[in-house]
Amino acid sequence: MKKITFLLTLLLMYVGVTPMMAEENLDVKPGVQYTIKNTYNGSDRYVYAGDNRKTGYDEGNVDLTNNKYKFTFEETGNTTSDGFKIYYIRPVAYPGDYMRNYDGVSHREKTTSATWCVIDDNGTHKIEYVNGTSRSGDYWVVNYDDAISCTSLATEQFLLKSFLKIEQVGGSEPEPEVPSFSLSGLYRIKNKCMDLSKDGQNKQANGQGAYLGSTYHEVTAAWAGMLGDVHCSTTSLADAGCVWMVEGDNATGFTFKNLNNGLYLTYNGNFGFSSSEYKFMMEQNESYYRIKQGDNYVHAAYAGIYAFALGEQADKADWEFIPATELQVNLNEYVNSGHLGGELNGYYATLYLPFDVTYTSASGLGVHTITVDGNNAWLSGALDQSYGIPANTGVVLKGTADTYTLTISTSALPALSESNDLMGTNVDLNLSSEAEKMQYYVLGLDNNSGKLGLRNPSVNVDKVPANRAFLKFDSYPVNALQFMVGEPTAIESVVTGNSDSAIYDLSGRRVLSTVKGSLYIQNGKKFIVE
After folding, report:
1. Where would I find the H helices in 71-195?
2. Edge-to-edge strand list for the sheet holding 468-472
């Protein structure tokens, strides 16, 4: 048989015909970096995966460059029906992207159109699209505009520019695709592709963006697949729910702990929170990061509410990790010259945070505790406390402006030494009944006098928002506690005449229902239920 082949070769050479070699499977090494060079007519220009894919929707340009541009070939574990290995091809500069047959050759997230076989044909190479496990007959070719397309080599205008050469670069050992990185600390996590100002659609951020945050509402089955109790916010500086403790590295994975609820972001078919650590993988994309579970990305989504989902949409999965160093607090103005001669006039808010914060005394901001005595809420003098508020401490803020910026402290502050009856919450507290509302006292005005203090929530309030301070009693005889300054001196009479028309028994306790024949007090007047 060898003798016959040799004689046939000699005969072909004699008549001036070069014997054709059969197409061979080019066995590229997974992890090793390669260049793909167009060799037609001495061109020696390299295939280049362009960067316009960063706009969020456009496919990545694939054309030629004079510089050596690197790719890796990742085995899928499958072969074509005639025995050629099937690969994913990935640009080193975009480690989260895959070369795919879509609108020509492009690069973006992995899809079923991202599988190829690599063929050695007489010393030049062809990259052929694989449909499932079938060779398609469509190859990477270069047109006259130096753009790479995927089409049949029989297309004449492409034929002369279809000679490619795959060459290994960077030595014989695989080079890492992604540089090692780790993240540890407090961050706000901003999605660059979500813009809430664009009619509720996922569009390029244009300087704005959506921050990963936590909410506490119950998510119905209609939002299955969304991030459950995770939302996006455009006011992250004033939203403590947008501060995450991130820890980990890209070898072992990362945990995302929301400081407000103290729980870890998890995924088990749907997104949610857990008290146990749950790790996501991440990859770096220039100055952005992509949060992954398997081959899918946490990305921006919209389905009637702003949310985030898990899927292949890598174009919406670029996240910026911004160190969380400050928190903005907003105060409401109070003016009443008749209340202690206007001494209380200023801007107010209550605050309760899961982390320590500091502030500058020169800013005009004062931090106060509350001591309850009778129907009065006594404000302490402005605290020194080295100008800081310890974590999980309820306080009242009083300032001369409506907005202040607090600094998130990197070290723990000592607990307050002052007497303080305030408590608070870092999650929304739903008030489902009138009985629950009677237990809580939140910052507000007396309906009749307009005086500032702490009072039971009105009928149209159904929750105490996260990061607010309040008082809570199992039973208390009044529904409003007026702000006073200085030290408690006496127990005042029960506050009455409220527009809520609350009813009290003779002991001064508020009641929800009356009993026939019993004596009660309403609006300062006694009456008997008949």
Report:
1. 156-159
2. 370-373, 376-379, 480-485, 452-455, 440-445, 468-472, 423-425
For residue 8, the surrounding DSSP H or E stretch is helix 2-14
Could you report the per-residue pLDDT of 292-343, keeping only the tens digit for each? 887 788 876 654 344 567 776 666 778 889 999 999 999 999 999 989 999 9
Q: What is the DSSP annotation of 439-495?
A: HEEEEEE-TTT--EEEEPPPTT--EEPTTEEEEE-S--S-SEEEEEES----PPPPP
* Residue 240: DSSP 8-state: G
What's the rounded Cα separation, in Å, for the pair 366 and 399? 6
Residues ≥6 apart with Cβ < 8 Å to 450: 336, 339
461 with 508: CB under 8 angstroms?
Answer: no
pLDDT band at 257 (very low <50, low <70, confident <90, very high): very high
Q: What pLDDT, in 10s, does the model give residues 398-430?
A: 999 999 999 999 888 988 888 899 999 998 898
Alpha-carbon torsion angle 50, 55, 59, 60, nearest 10: 10
Cβ–Cβ < 8 Å for 74, 28: no
CB 288 within 8 A of CB 192: yes
**Torsion angles phi and psi, residue 103, rounded to 5:** 50, 55
Query: In whole angstroms, what is the distance from residue 520 CA to residue 504 CA?
Result: 6
The answer for residues whose C-beta is within 8 angstroms of residue 146's C-beta and 6 or more apart is: 45, 63, 64
Q: Are 259 and 355 in contact (CB under 8 A)?
A: yes
* Choice among 10-19, 79-88, 445-454, 455-464 with the minimum mean pLDDT: 10-19
**Eight-state DSSP code of residue 392:** T
What is the rounded CA–CA span in Å between residue 5 and residue 15? Answer: 16
Evaluate if pTM is beyond 0.70: no
* Beta-carbon count within 10 A of 288 CB: 18
Strand partners, 511: 503
Q: CA–CA separation, 27 vs 80, rounded Å?
A: 14
Q: Which residues have CB under 8 Å from 221's CB, separation 6+?
A: none
Rounded mean pLDDT of 8-26? 50
The pair of three-digit structure tokens given for residue 522, joined into one six-digit string: 């309403």
Average pLDDT, the chain: 77
| DSSP run (H or E) holding 385 | none
Report phi then psi at 434, rounded to 5.
Answer: -65, -35
**DSSP state, 278?**
-
d(CA 198, CA 56): 15
- 472 - beta bridge partners? 440
Given a cut of 80, whether residue 445 has pLDDT beyond it is yes
